[in-house]
Amino acid sequence: MKKFCIAKKMSFLTSCAFLLILFLVGSYLLIPPLFFVDELFTNDDSFRSFMQSIDWRYKANAQAPAATWNTSEGGRYLYGRYHTPLPNMNTHDINPLQRLLQLKTWCWTSAVTSTKLFGMAIMSFHYVAHVVFYSYDVTTNTSLQQMSEVPGAVLFPGTALFSEGPGEDKGCTTWSLKHKMRLCYDAQKNEFSADLQAVFPGSVPANVSFAFSMSGDVLSVVYPLGPRRPTMTTKAVAKKVFRALSFPGWNEKTALEEPIYGMLDYSRTLGKRLTVWKWFAASFTDVASSGAQTPCGLQLTAEYYVDASGASLESFVSVNGVVTPISCPVIYREDDGGNRGKWTITAPCVGLTVTFLRGGQIPGNVNYGIIQASLYHMWGKAKIEFTVVGTTYRTESVPAVLEDHHSLW
């Protein structure tokens, strides 16, 4: 009787959350072997054989498919690398457990100058969702940051709403709980826009709005974790922002004095239980001795989207809107005794050297027993140098972002 009374007093949401945890535990321990039919590669040989069947060349003018899952010929994923954004990161008909436990989506974007950076992201894993945003100033090494987490996000429809593709409100990723964030890709105009209405701690307003064209090269990848287990991404750097910005430390004069660049990482995956990656992103203006100014950018990935040689298929540099994939492994070295405060990144095939000094971070740690994640999303100051077609591009100091991720999810 006493137990019955206690249970009766529990709130509806608490009861739902408790049942969800039991459901997740049972699903992971008992149900996946029966219902998760879209398996990972069983061994290295099957992975290599499948990878060799795909044309991974970043061919000139290779246009992204209208949808990543092609229903013809019995259905298949259009694995490969493309120059244009993926307009529809759809999947085959996955079962409800796969949708809840495997399907993960995140969208990160940033606006950056030579001294300032504003970044924001929405991440949804169905059983938990996060929204983050931050502002960083290299000259003062100061930042503002905010993160909100919603455990059991599946119980709160509309908290983090992701789209598979463009269309009327279908091309927007939105967050609606407490902070209002809207990240949209307009396929007709080939433009990406970001809008935020929120506050930092201390009641500092964070009302942000910017947009940039996705013209020129981007790097889009559809990659197999198994024959029917895709991970999909569209990445962009050094895209000139054309909509005025309004947030702390920025004003219209900033846009007149120097370019503001937009960056993007939009990804969906039917992810592995164990997922590890390191990732870096930056955009800057190279100034040659002649005074010529060239927009440059890069996104560097290690331990994810790798080919048989260990090189990540999503690492690239961009010069004046032209993307060059990095064909060798990108090496991350942590130089701060495990504190993640200083990093060196190299890739010899493009003469790449990056040194990164952390200015701030949001540690996104999740621990729900069988579900654990360690996601250190850092921003700071970077010195960058790389060579493309015999020309070296460099910057001594620019705001940049680095992520160190390890999850059992």
Overall description:
This protein is mainly beta. The protein has one domain. It is built from six helices and 24 strands. The strands form four sheets. Strands 19-18-17-16-24-23-22-21-20 form a nine-stranded antiparallel beta sheet, with no helix packed on it. It has an eight-stranded antiparallel beta sheet with strand order 3-13-14-15-4-5-6-7. A hairpin with a 5-residue loop joins strand 16 and strand 17. It is globular. The chain starts with a helix and ends with a strand. The N terminus is likely disordered.
- Estimated radius of gyration: 21 Å
What is the overall pLDDT average?
Answer: 83
Q: How much helix is in the residues?
A: 10-25%
Q: Which stretches are low in confidence, meaning pLDDT under 50 for 5 or more residues running?
A: 1-11, 28-35, 165-169
Strand content: over 45%
Tally the helices. Answer: 6
- Report how far the terminal alpha carbons are from each other: 38 Å
Structural class of the helix and strand makeup?
mainly beta
The number of distinct β-strands equals: 24
Give a brief outline of the structure:
The protein is mainly β and 409 residues long.
State the main characteristics:
409 residues, mainly beta, 9-stranded antiparallel sheet, 8-stranded antiparallel sheet, 6 helices, 24 strands, 12% helix, disordered N terminus
Write the layout of secondary structure elements.
Elements: H1 2-9, H2 12-29, H3 32-35, H4 44-52, E1 69-70, E2 76-77, E3 80-82, H5 96-101, E4 103-112, E5 116-124, E6 128-137, E7 142-151, E8 160-161, E9 172-175, E10 180-186, E11 191-200, E12 204-213, E13 219-226, E14 229-240, H6 252-257, E15 261-270, E16 274-287, E17 293-302, E18 316-319, E19 322-325, E20 331-334, E21 342-347, E22 352-367, E23 372-388, E24 391-408
Antiparallel strand pairs: 1-2, 3-13, 4-5, 4-15, 5-6, 6-7, 8-9, 9-10, 10-11, 11-12, 13-14, 14-15, 16-17, 16-24, 17-18, 18-19, 20-21, 21-22, 22-23, 23-24
